[in-house]
Design goal:
The protein is α/β, with parallel strands linked by helices and 317 residues long. It folds into two domains: 1-31; 34-314, 4-Layer Sandwich (Purple Acid Phosphatase, chain A, domain 2), CATH 3.60.21.10. Helix content is 29%, strand content 28%. It has helices spanning 3-27, 51-60, 70-74, 107-113, 129-142, 154-159, 197-208, 230-241, and strands at residues 38-47, 78-83, 117-119, 146-148, 150-151, 161-165, 168-176, 191-192, 213-219, 246-250, 258-261, 264-267, 272-274, 284-293, 296-308, 311-314. Strands 1, 2, 3, 4, 13, 14, 15 and 16 form an eight-stranded mixed sheet that branches. Strands 6-7-9-10-12-11 form a six-stranded mixed sheet. It has a two-stranded antiparallel sheet with strand order 5-8. A hairpin with a 2-residue loop joins strand 15 (296-308) and strand 16. Helix 7 packs parallel to helix 8 (230-241). The chain is globular and about 50 Å long. The protein starts with a helix and ends with a strand.
Length: 317
């Protein structure tokens, strides 16, 4: 009479152990427990849904770029990237050599792919002015994606957001190092967070009071360069010294180096994730996985990304 229930319990136990082993192999640590809250974060680089990507998606559907990576994105609790374009049907084009504007029809595909956080603090977010920026942020919120680094006012853009997952409060800040393409300073209008040493430190310290862990997104550096420049290191170190645990960089369109600094982790450039052939050398990137706990980054790993015909694929480890 006892043998059958025992076998059932043993089978269930083996199943749980097998599941835990698979998660450990994938993420490097055991699953979260109530005693030690932890969150699985995946971060990728530039996601650009306009120009050549728009052309390919109109032929193949908006889900086309994400077919090979959706599983990896859905394995995480939080998925972060940099949205390298406004998403709107409105606004006036800025007088720049290169401008982007994506069709709002792409937004559900971003959500379905797994994104729940996207930075808008970059040098293309204002390509079609404040109207398109506001549309972008509103559109993201409608598909349950939190915009980072932008707001209806400058103070809102620099305040950051707090996301709670598995009992952990994670704060996200986003900054752009390109004030010349962010429009004239208008603190009471839709704005981007612009990077500066004092402002960065102030924002990190303020946000840290509201959460357990701070993640800072930085749009910076030199396009096509595979090593970070001194400015990136200075700002990244300042962010971590002020209380951040993780700094995620983008803009160079190619992967750059990683650094451990005073207990924090810096990814100087995640490269590209979804982009067309018009990007300068930008057919590669990094998929960054990490476990966040109350003491910061507990574990992390990287996996190479290769882009072909606007579609990223993960490289073998």
């Amino acid at each position: 009479m006892l043998a059958r229930p025992f076998r059932l319990r043993l089978g269930a136990l083996c199943g749980m152990r097998l599941q835990a082993l698979c998660l450990t192999l994938l993420w490097g640590v055991a699953p979260a427990t109530a005693q030690a809250p932890q969150v699985r974060l995946v971060a990728v680089g530039d996601v650009m849904m306009a120009r050549g990507v728009d052309t390919v998606c109109r032929k193949n559907g908006w889900a086309y770029p994400f077919v090979n990576v959706t599983g990896a994105l859905h394995s995480a609790d939080l998925v972060f990237g940099n949205l390298e374009c406004p998403v709107s049907s409105r606004g006036g084009r800025m007088s720049r050599v290169i401008t982007f504007r994506a069709d709002p029809a792409c937004l559900p595909a971003l959500h379905n792919a797994g994104f729940n956080l996207l930075s808008v603090a970059n040098n293309h977010a204002m390509d079609y002015g404040r109207t398109a920026l506001a549309d972008t942020m509103d559109g993201l919120k409608k598909v349950s994606i939190r915009p980072v680094g932008g707001g209806s006012t400058y103070d809102e853009a620099t305040a950051g957001i707090v996301v709670e997952s598995h009992g952990l409060r994670i704060g996200f800040l986003g900054f752009s190092a390109f004030p010349d393409v962010a429009g004239a300073f208008a603190p009471d209008k839709p704005s981007l967070a612009i990077m500066g040493d004092d402002r960065l430190v102030e924002c990190v310290r303020s946000l840290k009071k509201r959460c357990d862990v701070v993640v800072v997104s930085c749009h910076w550096g030199v396009e096509g360069r595979t090593r970070h420049i001194p400015m990136q290191a200075r700002l990244a170190h300042a962010a971590i010294d002020a209380g951040a645990s993780l700094v995620l960089g983008h803009h160079p369109h190619v992967p750059q180096d990683l650094e451990r600094y005073h207990g924090g982790v810096i990814v100087y450039s995640l490269g590209n994730f979804v982009f067309d052939a018009g990007s300068r050398g930008g057919n590669s990137g990094i998929l960054f996985r990490c476990i966040l706990g109350k003491n910061g980054v507990r574990n992390y790993s990287t996996q190479g990304v290769k882009i072909k015909n606007c579609r990223p694929s993960l490289q073998s480890r």
